[in-house]
Design a protein that fits this description.
It is a single chain. The chain is an alpha+beta fold. 29% of the residues lie in helices and 18% in strands. It contains four helices and four strands. The protein has helices at 27-35, 67-77, 82-101, 158-165, and strands spanning 103-107, 110-113, 119-128, 136-146. Helix 2 packs across helix 3. The protein is extended, with a radius of gyration of 20 Å. It starts with 26 loop residues before the first helix and ends with a helix.
Length: 167
């Protein structure tokens, strides 16, 4: 079955592309080819830079794939290289095992987890903000690591944010 035929695109740095079409038209296939998840049977894909196709909230997850295959697919769809994915894989495995071991109940793809997990999160910027209920905007969060050594009673609070922002 041919999903894509005679497709030609040229995008410049910073360009964004929206793809519209009926079900089965090849929108997701094109995005996966552009991200490097699928290799075209004919033709070529030339990318100078990074591609990050966004087309759903759980990109690339396939129930028939292994966990590792889903990690690779999701990473590629998020614009990561295979080396970046390999570096992140043990961390993802650690989080997965932790949350599986502490699951109270499953709701489809959503898990209710024991409320005793502390995750260290770093922000590139903390600034005062009238738009946010807390009074602060925490910019560009990233998970650093699980903190099994830190009890929930010792987590940082809004007071900690105030101290950091006041520096």
């Amino acid at each position: 079955m041919r999903a894509l035929h005679n497709v030609s695109l040229k995008l410049g740095h910073g360009d964004r592309l929206g793809i519209l079409g009926h079900n089965g038209a090849g929108k997701s296939t094109l995005l996966r080819v552009m991200a490097g998840v699928y290799v075209p049977a004919a033709g070529r894909v030339i990318i100078d830079g990074r591609v990050s196709p966004l087309f759903n909230t759980s990109p690339g997850l396939d129930i028939d794939d292994t966990g590792y295959e889903n990690i690779v697919t999701c990473g590629m769809l998020l614009g990561m290289t295979l080396n970046e994915i390999k570096v992140k894989t043990p961390e993802i495995a650690e989080f997965t095992e932790h949350f599986k071991a502490h699951t109270i109940k499953e709701y489809g793809r959503t898990l209710l987890v024991e409320p005793n997990t502390v995750i260290e999160v770093a922000f590139d910027q903390v600034q005062k903000s009238a738009r946010h209920k807390s009074g602060y905007a925490l910019r560009f969060p990233r998970i650093v690591r699980l903190r099994p050594d830190k009890p929930v009673s010792e987590i940082d609070t809004l007071e900690t944010v105030r101290q950091i922002a006041g520096r």
